Fold:
Amino acid sequence: MPEVRLEEVRRFMVDSLKAVGAPDKEARAQADLLMHADTVGHYSHGLNRLEFYINDCQQGACKPAAKPVVLKESAGTAWVDGCFALGATVGNFCMELAIRKAKETGIAWVAAKGCNHYGMAGYWALKAEREGLIGISGTNSSPIMVPTRSKERALGTNPIAMAAPAGNGDKIVVDMASTTVAMGKIEMQIHKEEPLPNGWALGPDGRPTTDAKVAFGAGKLTPLGGEEKSSGYKGYCLATMMETFCSGLSGANPSHKVNLWDLARSNESMNLGQCFAAIDPDCFAPGFGERMAECLKTWRNLEPVDPSLPVLAPGDKEHQTSVSTLAKGTVTYPQKQLEAMEKMAKRIGVKPIQTV
Ligand SMILES: NC(=O)c1ccc[n+]([C@@H]2O[C@H](COP(=O)([O-])OP(=O)(O)OC[C@H]3O[C@@H](n4cnc5c(N)ncnc54)[C@H](O)[C@@H]3O)[C@@H](O)[C@H]2O)c1
Structure:
């Protein structure tokens, strides 16, 4: 598969976003978000998402130069209108607000309406972690999860993320969809022309399918855990929890009223809800970092079933991928994905992405 230098991927993202009206600062922040995903190995949320954002800007669903505003606040809370700005503009605004408030009060919770897709939820939790705080973030999304026992879809893939600092620069990073996988993973299987593992998705008839194109067309993902007999209702429950924090608190669209997000969307915004929280561990028992470091050490040192597959802590996989991506300086993309980017580049008049 072709490789592209990291600086070239970023150049292409920034040029593309500026071509559809994003100011330089906003384009760079959105590119940082996408670059993070491709660097840590969540390719579904990196370059793969760019064309969706470009189309949202062109069609008016996203206002790339808009700035969020605070509608209501207390010492430890804020209700924000994202004003349909780019996902990274709203994410940075809200998490910076939560961090500032948590440093003053110990804990802060920000809920935003009027949001667009904001990429990896973990990117936002990590912003607080870098400040020595526990970061939490989540979003609702288009209704592509089929709740347990339902024939119909009603909830989003509603991801949940938490990042916490442990001693010596180590950290725990939980960042996951409340469906078995994110829809972007199905798209990546299409790009790679590979079938889906069992249990990820349902076909139009509500029965499991491993055909990535059928699954993408049907847009019916299983809740985390799959069917009821394998506890899929717990993924459904987690999605309802994020719905409460995201649309419930902010007044955004609940997932079941959000438009489906595809490359041929209308100009109507999704009006997603998002939440951003920060907690200062220093307000609680002394030694938080050391305790978390001890937990991480214990988990990683558990005897593995297969010695070639050591036990990982949440966040380790992404950290390892990030170290190797940065050392290599390139990202590998499926040929079909780069062909789609070339078409998009022509359409919006930017220099196509150059492979190594
Ligand atoms: N913005 C949106 O609407 C939206 C919707 C859904 C998902 N997403 C994002 O998509 C990304 C991918 O989500 P996903 O659920 O498909 O990811 P995933 O299934 O790869 O799970 C990722 C999480 O599991 C942990 N993990 C993986 N293997 C592990 C192991 N062996 N031991 C311990 N922990 C392990 C990772 O460190 C990470 O915390 C996330 O960043 C999520 O935020 C975004």
Q: What stands out?
A: The first helix runs from residue 6 to 19.
